[in-house]
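[09:14] KT: can someone run the structure on this one? pasting the chain below
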Amino acid sequence: VQLQASGGGLVQPGGSLRLSCAASGSSFRFKTMGWFRQTPGKQRELVATITSDSSTNYADSVKGRFTISRDNAKNTVYLQMNSLKPEDTAVYYCNAVAPPHSQYNWGQGTQVTVSS
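[09:31] RB: done, structure tokens below
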């Protein structure tokens, strides 16, 4: 298995979750990693990225609420999600976004449901 995402669940609006995604292989540390999300009938959306030297970028929809981080020793990328909203409900995935052709096979993702 190349990517294993975990940490999703059901949370009330305003709550928090921390997602983790473990990758296999020795080249993780050189890759820019991203968290994506997808809802039924919609295209997968990139919500956050982190470069090999931990520079981060966020979609406007999550800026100020989500924080992406990584631990290269554990080949793991994290997504701390605070102040969750119902519109954050989706299946969340991680994958490499750079360099070109560095993408892993997509894993199963982890479901996040924000509902009262």
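[09:33] KT: thanks! The chain has a mean pLDDT of 95.
[09:34] RB: yep, looked fine to me
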